[in-house]
Every structure is written in structure tokens, then in C-alpha cells.
Amino acid sequence: MFALCSRRSMVGASMADDGFREFLRDLMEPLGGVAFRKMFGGLSIYQDGMVFALEIDGSLYFKVDDETRGRFVAEDCPQFEYTTKDGRTAQMPYWRAPERLYDEPDEFLDWCRAAVGVARRSEAAKAEEKARKASRKRKAAADTH
């Protein structure tokens, strides 16, 4: 049909971004509590206040960590990259969704749930780090008295 992960399949490259976004909303509706917010010409996709996916230039990217990276590598999906103001290439922890998922709604939802799990683990790690920093700060303050 099309090369894996290269572009969305059933929506086609000629469809306006709004059409693709509506298509994503429909696919994600069974998850419940999904919100779409504009950002930098694309969309951040949230569940329970946590970003688990991005839509940029008509492509969907799921949040990925060490636990889920292998499935994206196995499908030859690229990681999201952008060029910084100083010309460097920067990568974010988001990888393009395999386009075959658009024709497999149940599996698409499984990948969404996995990305939500990544977002939850990321938020938990941030909260733990914040608590550790606060604890070190309190300990340092107590040691100076």
C-alpha cells in the first residue's frame, strides 16, 4: 500500500490537516477524556492532562520511552526531530505512528494506551525528582542551622 510510517494511509496526503485531526479525534474517542490543544503549528494530544501524542504536519507521533521504543524501531518508524535556532538537530521522545494502525482501530487504541502509559511514567518520574530536590533542599537548609 504505502511505505511503513511514511505518511498516513487512508487519509491521504491531499487531505487538509483539519480532516486528519478530525480523523484522529474519531479514532481516539473510545479512549475517553482526550483533549487536543494547538501548539507550534500542530497539536498536543492529552489524556488526564498529560501529553501522550503530537500531530505535526499531518503525521501522528506517540510519546515513547525505553519500554515502548522497540515496537517503533521494529516498524522502522522515525523519531520526531526538529532544527533548533542554531541549526542543530534535536530529538524529542515522540516517534511517528505506523500508518497501518489507521486501518486497525483496536490496535491503534492499544498503541494510544501504551503512549498514555509512557506519559504517566514520565509524569511520575518528574514528581519523584521534584520530591528528591525538595528533600535535598530541606536537608541542606536544616544542616545550615
Commentary on this structure:
The protein is an alpha+beta fold and 145 residues long. It has a single domain (17-143), classed as 2-Layer Sandwich (Yope Regulator, Chain: A), CATH 3.30.1460.30. Helix content is 39%, strand content 26%. It is built from three helices and six strands; from the N terminus they run αββββαββα. The protein has helices spanning 17-28, 69-74, 105-143; strands at residues 34-39, 42-47, 50-56, 59-63, 79-83, 89-96. A six-stranded antiparallel β-sheet has the order 1-2-3-4-6-5. A hairpin with a 2-residue loop joins strand 3 (50-56) and strand 4. The longest helix is centred in the last third of the chain and has 39 residues, at 105-143. The chain is elongated and about 65 Å long. Residues 1-15 have low confidence and may be disordered.
List keywords for this structure.
3 helices; Yope Regulator, Chain: A; 6-stranded antiparallel sheet; 145 residues; single chain; TfoX-like; alpha+beta; TfoX_N
CATH fold field value: Yope Regulator, Chain: A
Helix content: 25-40%
* Shape, principal axes of CA atoms: elongated
CATH homologous superfamily - what is it?
A: YgaC/TfoX-N like chaperone
Quick synopsis:
The protein is of the alpha+beta class.
Would you spell out the secondary-structure blueprint of this structure?
Elements (H helix, E strand, L loop, with lengths): L16 H12 L5 E6 L2 E6 L2 E7 L2 E5 L5 H6 L4 E5 L5 E8 L8 H39 L2
Antiparallel strand pairs: 1-2, 2-3, 3-4, 4-6, 5-6
